[in-house]
Amino acid sequence: MTEISVLGDHTDWQNDFEQRLRASHTAAGIGVAAAERMLEGVRGGIGDWTVAEITDAGVRVGYVAVVVADEKGAPTGRIGDLHIDALHAGRGHERAARDWAEGWCVERGAGRLDIRLTEPAGGLFDDYGVRGQLRARRVSSPPEPVEGVTARPMTPAEYPEWLVSEKAAYVGDIFRAGALSPEEAVLKSDRDFAELIPEGLATPDNTFLVIEAAGEPIGTGWLRHGYLPGVTYGYSLYVQERHRGKGYGRAAMSAGEQATLAAGDSTLMFTVWGGNEVAMNLYTRAGYRVVEERRSLALPRSAA
């Protein structure tokens, strides 16, 4: 029988959690230094988590960690960790821990529950909506060029139109993922772009590309180098709608990989918003692994 008990001392759990997180990130192609940097960001927020030990007949089989925090004036729950040791997996402990976490958050007034998955969950959270994925791939050698497709630096004349289009697309991604209202998404877009590229094309460590086929622009790319040690972050690789379905999506990825290597990085990373299955499928075919997947569920859970 599954029993769940809140721990007073989190030391053993934290050591286990950090080891698992580090292993999952490096397995996805993130270098050791970059994985440690990502871990630092997580480590800074776990002090408020409530951590419980999952046991069966007195034997520890895993952990579950939860927190409820204010988000825009509304209590929002989060499952920070839910892990069952491989030896005890598939015996119902996962579902019991999930139900306990949901109930714990409901008791504290949470209207939504978020989770960040960093390892396979066996379908346990399939009814949670996907809000976004962080994907990455280690680029060990220059990609094969796509015949007839080239990439060149964006010009100052092309930048203003690109910026308007990119901000609008970002708003749509945020709203489609169910993260924010349209008005909140616009404010976030304005704020994020002003912070990320304050000097436009001249912002250091950023590459802005125009992708062409037979001399005609078919798409654009925006990458930030040194986002993490050895990691380039692809904020956008875009192919115009009328040119989709012709293999240019992979060509855009190749242009991003080439820019990554040229900048001295060895891993290319992207965020894919929930609802964008086309991009998710493209990244899967191109060998980009899921580093993290964020999902959410409205609380209380509707009666089935």
From TrEMBL:
Keywords assigned: Acyltransferase, Transferase
Domain N-acetyltransferase positions: 149-304
Keyword Transit peptide: no
InterPro entries: Acyl_CoA_acyltransferase, Bact_Acetyltransf, GNAT_dom
Coiled-coil portions: none
Designated name of the protein: GNAT family N-acetyltransferase
EC number: 2.3.-.-
PANTHER family attached to this UniProt entry: AMINOALKYLPHOSPHONATE N-ACETYLTRANSFERASE-RELATED, AMINOALKYLPHOSPHONATE N-ACETYLTRANSFERASE-RELATED-RELATED
Gene3D superfamilies noted in UniProt: 3.40.630.30
GO molecular function, one term: acyltransferase activity
Top-level taxon in the UniProt lineage: Bacteria
Species annotation: Streptomyces sanglieri
